[in-house]
Amino acid sequence: MELYNDSINDIGFFFIDDLLPKKIALELFKVFPDKSEMKCLKSIREYKYISAQMDRHNNLLEEVLYAFQDKEIVDLIGEICNVDSLYADESLYAGGISLMSESNFLNPHLDNSHDAERERWRVFNLLYYVTPNWKIEYGGNLELWPKGPKNNPVVIESKFNRLVVMATHQSSWHSVDKVIIDEKRCCISNYYFSNSPLKSDDKFHVTKYRGRPEETLKNLVLDFDASLRMLLRKFLKKGIRKNSHVYKK
Question: All domains of the chain, ordered by start, with CATH?
Answer without folding.
Answer: 2-235 (2.60.120.620)
